[in-house]
Predict the 3D structure of the following.
Amino acid sequence: MRPSFVKYCSAVSVLFIATASIAQTTGMNYVLIKPGDTEQQIIAKAANVTPSARQLRWQQLELTAFFHFGVNTYTDKEWGTGKESPSIFNPVLFDAEQWIKTVKAAGFKQVIITAKHHDGFCLWPTNTTEHSVKSSPWKEGKGDVVKEVAAACKKYNVGFGVYLSPWDMNAPMYGTEAYNDFFVNQLTELLTQYGRVDEVWFDGANGEGPNGKKQVYDFNRWYAVIRKLQPAATIAIMGPDVRWVGTESGKGREQEWSVIPADENMMEKIADGSQKDVAFAPKGDKMQKDLGSREKIKDAKGLIWYPAETDVSIRPGWFYHAKEDDKVKSPQRLLDIYFSSVGYNSVLLLNIPPNKEGLLSASDVKSLEGFSALLRKTFTKNLAKGAIIKCSNGTNTNALLDQSYTTYFTTKGKDTTTTIDFTLPSAKTFDVLSVQENISIGQRVEKFVLEYKDGTEWKQLAEGSTIGYKRLLKFQPVTAKQVRLRILSSRLNPTLSSFGLYKLTE
Ligand code: FUL
């Protein structure tokens, strides 16, 4: 369904905007590689690239929810035509609080509503077109889905984001420069009428409009509008802050670098040295298996912090279809997806499509409840708690178990490898490792192993390459009192915020 990412990127270039209102963390989220930099210097530069404040906040959300809702909900289609009559939109039991309360209870920290999908139907009473809720029978044309979702998010302290499809099969001016103005007006309404917006999600699909023409999207102009009106919002997918993981399966990469090479156009802007923040649309194929290893960055001209988001639907389709009521992913499947998204240094964006009544369906709610129960059962009790930690070349070992993300363990001097020994208060049975780098310092670890002591012998339990914000690894259950984490390769001193051992429920 999703056209290739390469195709998305054809019509875009680069823009850098200084944003005084968003402070950087310890460093910058991009770096220039100078001609003559050695490979070692490039690796060190990569290790010091850090997320912007908005990227760091977004990464820490871990779980975010997508709501695909609109005329497709009523036509049983995944993509509309732009010719749907607004009269079909009538969610008689619509209850945004039910959506938000349900996802919040399941652990989700932010949501994104499809304010407009490719069919052009707007879920808010926009002044830009009649093709909206205003022309529907719902609440006699006085309803506003975006407003009610934003209000529920505010009430329950959940982040709020909007999906605004650049492709619009209904707008008569689509395919002409006037459409970019129309789009700016739509964005401006969404970013000024509903309070704080935390994420703006742009799909790159670029099909034909009602007159058969395609549009050249003015992404740079749109980014400037967002940075001006909502500087804290991340701009995702066809945007500078968050990249698509490359699949819609819920499975990210085991080796997931958040620091990847910047493209050519971007470099020209970095090179003038005057910019404080980046805003550029992605180029190139983000579906490759490896985006940021040494091999990938050694010939780069610049590097950027550009983390992955894993979007997947709880059902086969993005929109609600009654025939998929019995195809909702099970709690166990959702837990697996959690391991292969959040546990692979990504943020999960799970789509839960509201039904024709305007509610999340019973089957989806049940599955979400089951998922959160599994999450809680698995991760509430860190079996490493109370361990005595020893590390001959490390400082601040207590930070590994103190439940604070900001405190962190690191190595002394220039050491990039280390072994951290944990002696648990008593022998424990576990089958999950959770480990986190402090990404506000950078992403550094390239190879690590977890071992346990069996009698007098150390045996390997699990191994991994990247860690990033969070890495989860499953292995065969083992009962042990002594375990050790060995960092075998890191781009600079590794900085670890947390270490956990857990047991999956039977
Ligand atoms: C795709 C769209 O075409 C789908 O309909 C859906 O919105 C998905 C999240 O992105 O590219």
